[in-house]
Design brief:
The chain has 221 residues and is of the alpha/beta class. It has a single domain, classed as Rossmann fold, CATH 3.40.50.300. The protein is built from seven helices and ten strands. Helix 3 packs parallel to helix 5. The site of adenosine-5'-triphosphate (ATP) has 10 residues, from helix 1. Belongs to the ABC transporter superfamily. Macrolide exporter (TC 3.A.1.122) family. This is ABC transporter ATP-binding protein. Keywords: ATP-binding, Nucleotide-binding, Transport. InterPro entries: AAA+_ATPase, ABC_transporter-like_ATP-bd, ABC_transporter-like_CS, ABC_transpr_LolD-like, MacB-like_ATP-bd, P-loop_NTPase.
């Protein structure tokens, strides 16, 4: 279970002129909550997700996980926090091309010294890819790769799931399967879920809607 709080979070690039892509954004996402981030392309959604996950450092402001300012953690503690307690689904999937699908899924388990206990097959089945563990990532369709990436993000049972358009490449059936899976993990198991999405039907499931416009959080219309 994990709470995420962010206070006056800003991210900018360059010096003169400075380009601000996230501008003093604040909020709280409670343990077990399902938050959806929406906004136009380029509005700063992925940047917010990267900051919440400690993948990027804020130019200003604070991210707290269970009350701890993650900027105060040393590299090792931050890596451990991310590896054990967070699961990321990236827009670009980031599967390792030299590892089979099953070995991609084994990676978070071995990094966290967790036993396999049939989890690889179980997760392949959960994302609709039973029996495909021996395949290579580059032989999979975009939607299949996306589902492997989702299984890899969830297999080590993280408290916090940060997902950047996890259904962007899926047909309706598979998108529904993945959203139902994420929703269940959040509701039944108390995982905190932050999802960037354009899918209107997912927005309806959210406990909290974070609408970003040109780097600022705005009230939903
Ligand atoms: N390393 C960087 N250097 C300069 N600008 C950057 C960098 N990374 C992101 N940006 C800019 O920050 C802005 C916000 O990007 P971000 O990826 O957060 O948008 P987004 O809302 O997730 O967009 P999309 O829906 O298209 O994925 C964009 O204009 C982008 O060009």
């Amino acid at each position: 279970m994990a709470d995420i709080a962010f206070e006056s979070l800003s991210r900018w690039y360059g010096e003169t002129p400075r380009r601000t892509v996230l501008d003093q954004v604040s909020g709280t996402i409670r343990a077990g909550e399902f938050a959806v981030v929406v906004g136009r392309s380029g509005s700063g959604k992925s940047t917010l997700l990267n900051l919440l996950g400690g993948l990027e450092s804020p130019s200003d402001g604070v991210v707290r996980i269970d009350g701890t300012d993650i900027a105060r953690l040393d590299d090792r503690a931050l890596t451990t926090l991310r590896r054990r307690r967070m699961g990321f689904v990236f827009q670009a999937y980031n599967l390792i091309p030299t590892l089979s699908v099953a070995d991609n899924l084994r990676l978070p388990l071995s990094l966290n010294r967790l036993p396999e206990d049939g989890r690889v097959e179980q997760w392949l089945e959960r994302v609709g890819l039973a029996g495909r563990g021996g395949d290579w990532p580059d032989r999979l369709s975009g939607g299949e790769q996306q589902r492997v990436a989702i299984a890899r993000a969830l297999i080590h049972a993280p408290d916090i799931i940060l997902a950047d358009e996890p259904t962007g490449n899926l047909d309706l059936d598979n998108a529904e399967r993945i959203v139902a899976l994420l929703d269940r993990l959040c509701r039944a198991e108390g995982r905190t879920l932050v999802m960037v999405t354009h899918a209107q039907e997912v927005v309806g499931l959210a406990d909290q809607l974070l609408t970003i416009r040109e780097g600022r959080l705005v009230d939903a219309e």
